[in-house]
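User: Predict the structure for this protein chain, please.
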Amino acid sequence: MKAPMRILCSSLAFGSLLALSSLALADDTKNFNWNGQLSADQTVTVKTINGDVDASPASGNQVEVTAEASGQGTQEVRFEARPDSNGVTICEIYPGVDSCSGSSTGHHNNNHLRIHYTVHVPAANRFTAQSVNGGISAQDLDREVKATTVNGSVKVSTKSWAEAKSVNGSVEATMGSANWSGTLNLESVNGAIHVGLPANANTEVDVRTVNGSFSSDFPVTSNAFMSHHVQGRIGSGGRELKLSTVNGSVHLLKSGS
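Assistant: Here is the predicted structure, written as structure tokens:
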């Protein structure tokens, strides 16, 4: 009589382990998909707190966004697509984090939860990405790009112009056009800055670095040339380009070189 009981107990224990394993797998990842068409000149915006963003051109006129949450607590993540007059914003909400509003309380154990966004951007639309703990890559786009993170690198290339900022990470932006209005800022604190401009660019430049050097493929007519601060002009000047870092060098390149 004892042997069947042992078999029954073993079966129950094995069943419990399977249930726990299934629960762990269900909690390991969560996926999100969104697609839609925006009007020309509208912006696709992605906001995340603990996530990476990769953007590339769409094959047609539909915006395509996929997101994957991985780690602990993924089933508590709620992805949202919020349309407005400027376009659409994709963001996530889970305990302690609301990237839609840009808030993070830090009171919940979500340090092991990561988000990865993949975005396909149509040629007629602009792109904006914001992260706190994550890198941003937006390659071969057609319109204006704005990318900002705190802990991570930023790498952007577009046929238009781009604004890129990081605190702890390098910034790399290759632009096919220098037709921005007013002042364009590319910044880091702990990281190098590499900026590519078209060969016919005309702009005033203001370059600042504390622990680093400055190099340029363009001849710069200098108004002020100090060891860590350069003010000058490329071509006929006009609009302003500000490049700033604390710990890192600044390199101004001709696009395609």
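The radius of gyration is 24 Å.
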